[in-house]
Structure formats: structure tokens, C-alpha cells
Amino acid sequence: MGILSFFNNIWKNTLFYPGCMLKFAMEKELENYKKILIKSDIDFIMIKEEVCCGSPIFNAGYRKDFRNLIEKNYKIFKEKNVSLIITPCPGCYKTFKIETKKVFPKWNIEVEHFTQTFLKILKKGKIKFSLKKEIVSYHDPCHLGRYAGIYEEPREIIKIIGGEIKEAKHNKQNAICCGAGGGLKTNFSETANKIAQKRVSDFPEEAEKIITPCGLCSMHLKKEDKRIVELSEWILERLQ
Fold it and tell me: Integer distance in angstroms from the first to the last C-alpha of the chain?
């Protein structure tokens, strides 16, 4: 083994990959996640050269273009010695964790959703927080829930730091989509808004906040219900 290979094997990096939504449209939430990771003593890097994960074009059926994006990202990630990706974006998580290997079997980088990472930190007792009791509800993003099977991790986080969850009428695998995904919000805004109205009617009145870990869901649903809050904001309020 050469000296360069030796040090490359030692200096493995954890990449924080925020996704396009946070990077370009939700700067406050992007900073929230960075602050939480820093407070959690997670050593991470960010990469300016990275490109979109490819979720929108994958879902639109453009497999060749999707593979091109994956290959670009993979080359960049390997040059930066990335061994683990942490992302708060449900679409990015689903793409990197599930879809990538279908078109690019060479992919060998581990992927965690932020809720998986942060729950492990909480359970180790390495982070302090103010236990502020609050009655809340939770919205399951489609890509994180039905497609990736992550239901319990965000709920456990909420419960640990003071949230008493009152579930929506339709939740977990039966949760109703927010209405914004799949290009619906862009191309058929009236239909998307009607779906959002139906979704927020699902949540119990006694819930003071409705929490979701999806930037797109939070932006879309908040127009119909001011109780909607993105997960990072709710967490950061309680961290000491």
C-alpha cells in the first residue's frame, strides 16, 4: 500500500449533503442543521462542487441523465474521501440509499438520514437540551416514510426532547402526500393546494405544532396551516 492510499484510508470524511431545497431556498433551515451537527460534535465537510442528487429527473424517467449526475457526484465524493453522507432531505436520502445502486452498482458510500444520525446522538446522552413539553403532531414525507421506511426515528427524537405526539388521522404508511412533490406544485398548483388543504385537515386541533423533516412539505403545508414547522427549527429551540 502506497503512502497516499494509507492516508486516504485513515482520513475518511463525513459529508453533510443538504439537498437543493435547503441549499437554494431554505437558508435558515440549512444553517439550523449545521448548528445541530456542530453541537452534536459531528465532524463533517460540505462540498461546493457537488450537484443535484438526481431525484427529480429520476422520478421523471430520465435514467441516463440520472446516471450522469450520480457519476459526477460519486467522482467528487471519492476525491474528497467521503465515506458517509448525512442528509436531511428525504428525496436525497431515498435517491442515494435506494435508487443509486440500481443504475450505478459501483456506489459504495454509506448514507444516513439526519434523523437516524441525530437519534443515535441523543441516545448516547452526548447533547444537552431543554425539556420543553409541547403537544405536537407529525407529517410523514412520502420519500422518507413510504419509500424509505423511516417512521420511528423522527418520532423518537420528538418524544425524547419533549414532544407529546398526537397522530394525524392518516399517518405512517397511510399518510397523505403534502401535494407538492412530483412537479405537481409547479405544473398544477390548484390541485397541489387542494391536496395540502386535505392534508392539514387530518391533524388534531390540540396539536400546537405540526413537525415535518421535509423542506418541500413544510413550505407547501405552511401556507395552509401556520402550525407547520420544519424539524430542525423545532430541535434547535431546545438545544442548549
Answer: 45
Domains for the chain: give ranges and CATH numbers: 3-118 (3.40.50.1860), 129-236 (3.40.50.1860)
The whole-angstrom separation of Cα 35 and Cα 16 is 12
DSSP 3-state helix, strand, coil percentages of the chain (rounded to 5)?
50, 15, 40
Q: Are 69 and 51 in contact (CB under 8 A)?
A: yes
Beta strands 134-138; 110-113: pairing state: unpaired
* Segment (H or E) for 110: strand 110-113
- Per-residue pLDDT reduced to its tens digit, 25-82: 999 999 999 999 999 999 999 999 999 999 999 988 999 999 999 999 999 999 999 9
User: How far is C-alpha 218 from the chain's CA centre?
Assistant: 12
